[in-house]
Amino acid sequence: MTTTAADTRAPSPAPSNGPDRPRPPRRRTRAADRGFNRAFRYLATSAGTLILIALAAVAGFLLWQSWPALTSSGSEIASKVSFFQGQSSLASYLGPLIFGTLLAAAVALAVATPLAIGIALFTSHYAPRRLASLLGWVIDLLAAIPSVVYGLWGALVLAPTIQPVWQWVSNVLGWIPLFKGPAADPARVLLTVSLVLAVMILPIITAVSREVFLQTPKLHEEAALALGATRWEMIRTAVLPFGRSGVVSAAMLGLGRALGETMAVVMILSPGLTYSFALLLAGKQQTIAANIALKYPEANSLGMSTLMATGLALFVITMVVNMASRWVVGRRKEFSGAN
């Protein structure tokens, strides 16, 4: 029997991964990945649920503690609570506090946000790397200063120093209700408090805005520059539109800090319970957090319940602000950079 070339051909070797490349245990790896994914999912879900439980517990505690004041008449509260004198109802006591809190936070936000955006743009697109790092470190350091230090600085240094400036503003712009004068001496007024609050929230807005601006797609920046845009035009057409939602989120974080600030307001502001837009007059406004800190030592059981009712109002205001910021950010979600 003759053999052909096909018969003498050596059998082809079986496919292998080579002597140094053993086949990985795919089933075991996939099973381990599924286990890790499942554990991480459960951990993340538990963390989110814990936050919701804590938030509900805080709301329930405030509602439970404030319920006696919410169900009592104004005359009953006035007869038992010393600091409630002259108020006809809980709403009449709470209204000026809400007004003062929102006014102080809004003025602080109006002062801090443009300055923070400018610093963030300078450190992200203009300054040399070393200078940007140094300036970012200094701005971040402001967030580590305790609020009581800001309060001491505002009461002992800023208020006496800035009083001539406020007096000049009152003389020049006194026809505007916000700057109605004459300015108080020393300047323990809401505008001084708002200036201190602006310094306190400046690091938060600056840090978040800087990181958002640095995430701008290079494709957008290079395209704007390739079309002949200057650096400012590139920032105005590419960087700012991309970071708008991030800046809004940063501003809302700063607003939350300004709404709940206590010690700095207590140490600087001369309090009052009126609906007044006059930022340079003393004894006109007060914030909820500062009022709680001042009235807590003299409060009896019903007075404590009244203060808890004001705290509940602050809690609701903070939740509304956060929900509004999430809605604004969600509307800008379709702008996804270079995608």
Automatic annotation (TrEMBL):
Keywords: Cell membrane, Membrane, Phosphate transport, Transmembrane, Transmembrane helix, Transport. The keyword Transmembrane applies. Residues 1-31 are annotated as: Disordered. Residues 98-325 form the ABC transmembrane type-1 domain. The keyword Zinc does not apply. Its main location: membrane. CDD domains: TM_PBP2. Gene3D superfamilies: MetI-like (1.10.3720.10). The chain crosses the membrane at residues 40-64, 97-122, 134-159, 187-208, 262-282, 302-324. It is a multi-pass membrane protein. It is found in: Cell membrane. Belongs to the binding-protein-dependent transport system permease family. CysTW subfamily. Part of the binding-protein-dependent transport system for phosphate; probably responsible for the translocation of the substrate across the membrane. This is Phosphate transport system permease protein. It comes from Luteimicrobium album. The gene is pstC.
